[in-house]
Design brief:
Elements: E1 3-4, E2 10-11, H1 14-34, E3 39-42, H2 45-56, H3 61-64, E4 67-70
Parallel strand pairs: 3-4
Antiparallel strand pairs: 1-2
Length: 83
């Protein structure tokens, strides 16, 4: 199912969005209670941009304050892997 949240944000999996928003709200509330900040590190630019848009469209200020950053996955070559 595809849902358009606003003119720029289209959601293809509402269950995933619901889970992300529930997790974000829980983390944001816990951070507010402790004075901590919340930072989400996402492995793809597309994912980071989508989550950032999702959070920015939230009516909850705590969720809008979550920092979302793109952090590319780093892989290393191990010549002994599989031996």
């Amino acid at each position: 199912m595809t849902v358009r949240l606003n003119s720029k944000l289209v959601v293809h999996n509402q269950n995933r969005v619901d889970t992300i928003m529930e997790t974000a709200e829980s983390q944001a509330n816990n951070a507010k209670d402790t004075g901590a900040t919340v930072r989400w590190e996402i492995q793809t630019e597309l994912g980071a941009n989508g989550i950032r848009q999702l959070f920015n469209s939230s009516p909850l200020e705590n969720i809008r304050n979550i920092e979302v950053v793109y952090v590319p996955q780093i892989t290393t070559f191990d010549p002994n892997y599989g031996n």
